[in-house]
């Protein structure tokens, strides 16, 4: 019997040694001889499989490519130009009849201008013609007319031209005017004035708008555009302000990201429920093997946290942590972040929709493209993201998909749940969304953390509600009362300054080599 035990002990020791830096990233202590005699051999648990519940539209939206964060946008903020056009077929006589039937709504000048334009078109292209009714540049709707898209100016070379212009003023009233320009540049100057007066665009937005008109006009001159089927559903709300490029707002060390860029996959992915396009960065570990399985370390707030990925990956390179796949999530580069918006909206107000997206769309997609160990994967959220991570943790039992076994809840801004917005459900939060009414125990691991100096940071936000640290303390008490698997640390820090240190520390301790 002693000989058998000795053999088993040697095998266990070898297994423990070979597990260091394995894909699971978890190593344990060798069991004692008493344990070996009494414990049955463990059966390997079945890996968690995720079911992708994306719609066809969502699947069609996904674009997985190399990192573009480092790309330099041009002076107007665009990085590429794809012009798409929906052509509408029109009969001159039908159009003339329409204007005649609406003659009472037009001034003499407007009527004469419309008839003159129709006559030019008929002389040039005949009774029936097609024109570019809806024009998109990089998927964004171009409001202003494009000279070369007009049948009577199809061979326009930049000189004199004019047309009949109909628009709705700021009071919602229809307006018309006859326009005449000495050159294309004069036309762009008119657009600048119109955008400032009618739309209230900023200078940068105005310059971008005129650039889109220039790009579209050149595409018609060269024939370099795609034709959309007639009847294509055009999103007219996709106008200029949303098309600025905000890569410059991302916080990261350019040289550090440059050094790992070949290990980063960038994914653009749309969610129907939130009507939003997200940017996802997947940072693969050193010596990544597509046939091996790795935990995912999922970071919300990618605009800041992707900047931590080079240091986290270096921990793996230096043998200080086991290999994991780092995934960070933020919005499209064309969505601005301004004083909490739209971050608070989606991490707090619409946190259930965001949880649906991550649980049933994004993580299953990640699982289809990389071999992931869901049971050992971690979801991180801080501040509003901490509110989201708390929500995700205590509603995880309501989902078929189980993408995470571990949760980091950092400095949760629970006080943000008491604002006057529908759906915040502060009572649900105070009861951890009824999780312990539905379950005997918490089946996930939780790391709760905060900064010891952070309460004054948002003193004007509490409105008589528990401060950040008071909310953390109450949550900690609830977790301990239920015997949850909870780790806790209070850093000597303000609200967010401790995060880089915490992430590195967590990576080394949770996924030791």
Layout of strands and helices, then pairs:
Elements lengths: L1 H17 L14 H6 L17 H6 L1 E4 L16 E9 H10 L6 H18 L2 E10 L2 E2 L19 E8 L5 E8 L2 H16 L3 H20 L3 E3 L25 H7 L3 E8 L4 E8 L12 E4 L2 H4 L3 H9 L7 E7 L11 H7 L1 H19 L8 E5 L1 H11 L11 E5 L15 H5 L4 H4 L6 E7 L16 H14 L3 E7 L7 H12 L3
Parallel strand pairs: 2-7, 10-11, 10-12, 12-13, 13-14, 14-15
Antiparallel strand pairs: 1-8, 2-3, 3-4, 5-6, 8-9, 9-11
Helix pairs in contact: 4-5, 6-7, 11-12, 11-13
Describe this structure in words.
By secondary structure, this protein is of the alpha/beta class. It folds into 3 domains: 2-38, no CATH class; 56-72 and 248-510, Alpha/Beta hydrolase fold, catalytic domain (Rossmann fold); 83-243, no CATH class. 36% of the residues lie in helices and 19% in strands. It has helices spanning 2-18, 33-38, 56-61, 92-101, 108-125, 184-199, 203-222, 254-260, 302-305, 309-317, 343-349, 351-369, 384-394, 426-430, 435-438, 468-481, 499-510, and strands at 63-66, 83-91, 128-137, 140-141, 161-168, 174-181, 226-228, 264-271, 276-283, 296-299, 325-331, 378-382, 406-410, 445-451, 485-491. The strands form 3 sheets. The chain has a 9-stranded mixed β-sheet with strand order 1-8-9-11-10-12-13-14-15, with helices on both faces. Strands 4-3-2-7 form a 4-stranded mixed β-sheet. It has a two-stranded antiparallel ribbon with strand order 5-6. Helix 4 runs antiparallel to helix 5. The longest helix has 20 residues, at 203-222. The relative contact order is 0.11.
């Amino acid at each position: 019997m002693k000989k058998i035990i000795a053999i088993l002990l040697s095998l266990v020791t070898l297994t423990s040694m070979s597990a260091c830096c394995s894909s699971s990233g978890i190593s344990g202590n060798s069991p004692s001889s008493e344990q070996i005699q009494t414990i049955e051999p463990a059966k390997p648990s079945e890996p968690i499989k995720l079911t992708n519940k994306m719609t066809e539209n969502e699947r069609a939206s996904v674009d997985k490519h190399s990192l573009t964060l480092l790309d330099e946008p041009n002076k107007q903020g665009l990085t590429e130009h794809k012009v798409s056009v929906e052509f509408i077929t029109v009969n001159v006589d039908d159009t003339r009849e329409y204007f005649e039937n609406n003659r009472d709504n037009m001034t003499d000048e407007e009527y004469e201008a419309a008839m003159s334009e129709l006559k030019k078109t008929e002389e040039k292209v005949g009774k029936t013609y097609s024109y570019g009714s809806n024009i998109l540049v990089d998927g964004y709707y171009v409001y202003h007319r494009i000279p070369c898209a007009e049948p009577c100016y199809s061979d326009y070379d930049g000189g004199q031209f004019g047309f009949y212009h109909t628009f709705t003023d700021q009071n919602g009233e229809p307006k018309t005017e006859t326009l005449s320009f000495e050159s294309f540049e004069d036309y762009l100057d008119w657009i600048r004035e119109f955008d400032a007066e009618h739309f209230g665009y900023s200078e940068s937005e105005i310059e971008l708008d005129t650039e889109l008109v220039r790009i579209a006009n050149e595409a018609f001159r060269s024939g370099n555009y795609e034709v959309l089927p007639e009847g294509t559903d055009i999103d007219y709300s996709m106008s200029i302000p949303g098309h600025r490029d905000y890569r410059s707002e991302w916080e990261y060390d350019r040289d550090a990201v440059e050094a790992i860029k070949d290990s980063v996959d960038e994914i653009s992915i749309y969610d129907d429920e939130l009507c939003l396009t997200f940017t996802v960065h997947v940072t693969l570990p050193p010596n990544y093997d597509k046939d091996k399985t790795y935990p995912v370390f999922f970071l919300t707030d990618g605009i800041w946290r992707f900047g931590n990925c080079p240091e986290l990956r270096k921990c793996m390179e230096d043998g200080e942590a086991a290999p994991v796949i780092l995934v960070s999530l933020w919005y499209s580069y064309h969505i601005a972040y301004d004083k909490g918006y739209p971050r608070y909206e989606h991490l707090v107000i619409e946190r259930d929709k965001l949880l649906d997206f991550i649980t049933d769309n994004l993580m299953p997609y990640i699982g289809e493209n990389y071999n992931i160990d869901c049971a050992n994967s971690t979801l991180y959220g801080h501040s509003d993201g901490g509110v989201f991570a708390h929500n995700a943790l205590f509603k995880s039992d309501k989902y078929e998909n189980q993408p995470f076994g571990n949760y980091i809840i950092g400095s949760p801004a629970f006080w943000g749940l008491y604002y006057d917005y529908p759906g915040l459900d502060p009572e649900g939060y105070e009861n951890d969304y009824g999780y312990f009414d539905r379950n005997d125990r918490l089946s996930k691991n939780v790391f709760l953390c905060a900064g010891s100096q952070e309460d004054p940071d948002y003193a004007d936000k509490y409105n008589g509600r528990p401060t950040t640290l008071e909310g953390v303390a109450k949550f900690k008490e609830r977790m301990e009362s239920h015997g949850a698997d909870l780790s806790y640390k209070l850093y000597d820090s303000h609200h967010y300054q401790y995060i880089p240190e915490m992430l590195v520390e967590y990576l080394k301790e949770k996924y030791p080599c």
